[in-house]
Structure formats: structure tokens, C-alpha cells
């Protein structure tokens, strides 16, 4: 989608700190680091949200999540990690290209919640 900022990140029009890439998926650091290493995982195919997500794209997206989570674990040594996905503005989605937040957790004062 031409006016989607995450599509622009995928095609390099907007710079990003890349964490992982394969044929179907791109992962990069969130511009607003809620916790250190806060990462967004997105499908290269533009899908708006979970309601718009076809099964093949869902499988490709979630297949990459354990690899990326383990990379974050190795790099940042968090004590845990939240995966989070907002769908629809009522549910706090602000960018309408589906994304999974990976939020490394360090302690009770790490900035999340
Ligand atoms: P949402 O609120 O839709 O679940 O999450 C959207 C996320 O995208 C936010 O955490 C926001 O910081 C992040 N974001 C928005 N614009 C950009 C950008 O241009 N670059 C990066 N790396 N992250 C962005
Ligand atoms: Zn998009």
C-alpha cells in the first residue's frame, strides 16, 4: 500500500533498524522503545489487522516469531518477553499494517504497564 509507513519501511523508503528478514517477514526496532529491544514483526504482504489476515500470511508471520524472540533473548538477556498485537483503533492500533510487538521484560520498573 503506497501510503502505509510499514510498507515504506519494508521497501526501504523509510529507514529502520532491521532485526530480521526473510521472504515473507520483516522485523525492526520500534521507534519508541517501550523497553530495550522492543521489536515489531510484520508480514511483507500488506494486511491491515487480524481480521484482514489470511491463513498463509498468518502462518508465515508467526513462524518467524520464535526465531526473532530467541535472537532478542540472546542479545538483550531479558527475564521474559510479551508478545502483543493491537487490532483496530478502539484496541489501540495506530499503524494499520498488522504487527506483533515483542517486548522484552527486565523488571517491574522496565517501562511496560
Ligand atoms: P500500534 O499502536 O499500532 O500497536 O503500534 C505501532 C507502533 O509503531 C508504535 O509502537 C510506534 O512507536 C511504531 N512506529 C510508528 N511509526 C514508526 C516508524 O516510522 N518507525 C518505527 N521503527 N516504528 C514506528
Ligand atoms: Zn502496509
UniProtKB/TrEMBL annotation:
GO molecular function: catalytic activity
Biological process per Gene Ontology, one example term: nucleotide metabolic process
Motif mapping: Histidine triad motif: 97-101
Signal sequence segment: none
Domain HIT: 5-112
Catalytic site positions: 99 (tele-amp-histidine intermediate)
Full protein name: Protein hit
Lineage: Bacteria, Bacillati, Bacillota, Bacilli, Bacillales
This protein's encoding gene: hit
Shown stretch of the complete protein: 1 to 113 of 139
Amino acid at each position: 500500500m503506497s501510503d502505509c509507513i510499514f510498507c515504506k519501511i519494508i521497501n526501504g523508503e523509510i529507514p529502520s533498524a532491521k532485526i530480521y528478514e526473510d521472504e515473507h517477514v520483516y522485523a525492526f526496532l520500534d521507534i519508541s522503545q517501550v523497553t530495550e529491544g522492543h521489536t515489531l514483526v510484520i508480514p511483507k504482504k500488506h494486511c491491515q489487522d487480524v481480521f484482514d489476515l489470511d491463513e498463509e500470511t498468518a502462518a508465515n508471520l508467526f513462524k518467524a516469531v520464535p526465531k526473532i524472540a530467541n535472537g532478542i533473548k540472546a542479545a538483550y538477556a531479558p527475564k521474559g518477553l510479551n508478545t502483543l498485537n493491537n487490532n483496530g483503533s478502539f484496541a489501540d492500533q495506530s499503524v494499520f499494517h498488522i504487527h506483533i510487538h515483542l517486548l522484552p521484560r527486565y523488571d517491574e520498573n522496565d517501562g511496560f504497564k
